[in-house]
Amino acid sequence: MKVVLTQDVKGLGKKGELVNASDGYCRNYLLPRKLAVEANSQAMSELKNREAAEKHKLDTEIAEAKKVAASLEGKTVKLSAKAGANGKLFGSVTAKDIAEVISNQLGINIDKKKIQAEDIKMFGVYPVEVKVYNGISASLFVSVGE
């Protein structure tokens, strides 16, 4: 019997999947416990609509991430910090500081966990990689000065 799972069932499948299970298992276990619904035309159309909605959402997120990555690519953000006589900073510039500067100067909110950079401890220009989405990243430069 073909059924659409409404919850994850160990050994059978995940929520929203169309699976083929034995008639007795469906009638005596899955259907009474509301773990699955019979795969009739209404359930199949709901499954297709849900899959289409998930695909549309994923496509929208990827397009938005590509747009953000394109706006970040190759840009230089300027950051000021206090330093000693030889150009060595008091403390360091962290991913949190870089995220704040990107937000202030470019108007793009980036989570500090998505910024791949070493702690910056001297004046200069440093390359930074920002992972915008899974498989989509952008490179930009951070200029540290007084």
Write the layout of secondary structure elements.
Blueprint: E1 2-5, E2 18-20, H1 23-30, E3 36-38, H2 41-72, E4 76-80, E5 88-93, H3 95-106, E6 115-116, E7 120-122, E8 124-133, E9 136-145
Parallel strand pairs: 4-9
Antiparallel strand pairs: 1-2, 1-3, 5-7, 6-8, 8-9
Describe, in plain words, how this protein is organized in 3D.
Helices cover 36% and strands 32% of the residues. With 146 residues, the protein is α+β, with helices and mostly antiparallel strands. It has two domains: 2-66, Ribosomal protein L9, N-terminal domain (Ribosomal Protein L9, domain 1, 3-Layer(aba) Sandwich); 67-145, Roll (Ribosomal Protein L9, domain 2), CATH 3.10.430.100. Strands 4-9-8-6 form a four-stranded mixed β-sheet. The protein has a three-stranded antiparallel β-sheet with strand order 2-1-3, covered by helices on one side. Strands 5-7 form a two-stranded antiparallel ribbon. It starts with a strand and ends with a strand. The model has no long low-confidence stretch (mean pLDDT 89).
Which regions have little confidence, pLDDT < 50, spanning 5+ residues? none
**CATH homologous superfamily heading of the largest domain:** Ribosomal protein L9, C-terminal domain
Task: Kindly estimate the percentage of residues that lie in beta strands according to DSSP.
Answer: 25-35%
Distance between the termini: 71 Å
Helix content: 25-40%
CA gyration radius, whole angstroms? 25 Å
Known CATH architecture of the largest domain: Roll
Please give the count of helices: 3
H/E element string?
EEHEHEEHEEEE
Spatial order of strands in the largest sheet: 4-9-8-6
Number of domains: 2
Structural class: alpha+beta
CATH class of the largest domain: Alpha Beta
- Briefly note the CATH topology name of the largest domain: Ribosomal Protein L9, domain 2
Instruction: Note the main sheet.
Output: 4 strands, mixed
Average of per-residue pLDDT values: 89
**Cα shape:** elongated
The counted number of beta strands is 9
